[in-house]
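User: Before I run my own analysis I want an independent prediction to cross-check against. Here's the chain; please return only the structure tokens and, at the end, one sentence I can use as a sanity check.
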Amino acid sequence: MQTGMAQRSLDQTPLSREACLQSINFEFLREARPELAMFAGFAEHYAHSDPTGALSKLRSFAEQVVDGIYVTYRLPKP
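Assistant: Structure tokens:
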């Protein structure tokens, strides 16, 4: 699940060829959570050539996972 704001921004952003990078380890997420598969694909692809960029994508991945937990369990935002 996603917040409406995150969903709108993803829906309105045109996907470039790079945004569709397939993840070696997280492709199973693509059907239910395509944004997670996208962030994981970027992180895996750039892990060696751009470690800082990969860490940035992993942070986005983690933020989306946490946001999904809050939405799924209807937890109050801190």
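Sanity check: Confidence is low (pLDDT under 50) at residues 1-15.
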